[in-house]
Write a structure and sequence with these properties.
The protein has about 220 residues and is an alpha/beta fold. Helix content is about 35%, strand content about 15%. The radius of gyration is 28 Å and the shape is globular.
């Protein structure tokens, strides 16, 4: 079971990005557990070299470390990341919490409306040692009224797209299978005759004669 932590970069209650991730958690495909992180607003400001780690920071660090992968969805403010999301990332980069962690992003903005935020997000993730899985990153533009009164996206096409994103991310988490080593039977079927040397001629003072291995005829 793959565990994916969903992180929205918005602190608005009616955020379209948060609604998209909340919906993704609801429609997660079999084999994937998606959990929405919802404590961005209560994180204290990052303090470099802080020895006493606040409880909310320790909790999100534990959630990140327990997750098999992270999926971000963020708006763009001032041409870059929202300060609240950058604050969270600062707390994570201040340690090994992102090192080697598979991550991806989901964009619900129209093309050209969040390029600065996505570039800044990837820059910070790379700086923290995360592994950005571009095959799992996707843009699914949504209209401003796509979320209903419950903070969910009702569009069925988005449901399918969100499932595809989570499935793609979960598949990317699996390490590649090592190539199978051929058995002797498979190897010998490719090369049924293996040259060998008949040493009996050497003992008799003659020249060695090549012989060939033949498959056994049975017991």
């Amino acid at each position: 079971m793959a565990r994916i932590l969903l992180i929205s970069g918005s602190t608005r209650e009616d955020s379209l990005q948060t609604a998209a991730l909340r919906t993704a958690a609801r429609v997660a495909p079999p084999g994937v557990t998606a959990v929405l992180y919802d404590a961005l607003r209560v994180l204290p400001a990052f303090v470099p070299l802080e020895r006493r780690i606040p409880g909310s920071v320790a909790l999100v660090r534990e959630q990140v470390e327990a997750a098999d992968g992270l999926l971000f969805c963020t708006p763009e403010y001032g041409g870059s990341l929202p300060g609240s999301l950058k604050n969270l990332l600062d707390w994570l980069v201040d340690g090994p919490h992102l090192t080697g962690k598979p991550v991806a992003w989901l964009s619900v903005a129209a093309p050209g409306q969040d390029d600065g935020a996505r570039a800044a997000l990837e820059a910070v993730l790379h700086h923290g040692g995360a592994r950005v899985l571009r095959s799992a990153c996707i843009r699914i533009p949504l209209g401003p009224n796509a979320a209903d009164a419950h903070g969910l996206v009702a569009d069925q096409q988005f449901h399918q797209a969100a499932q595809d994103v989570l499935l793609s991310l979960s598949r990317s988490l699996a390490p590649p299978e090592p190539p199978a080593q051929p058995s002797w039977q498979a190897y010998s079927s490719l090369y049924p005759m293996v040259p060998q040397t008949d040493t009996s001629a050497l003992r008799a003072g003659g020249r060695p004669r090549p012989t060939y291995w033949q498959p056994p005829t049975g017991s």
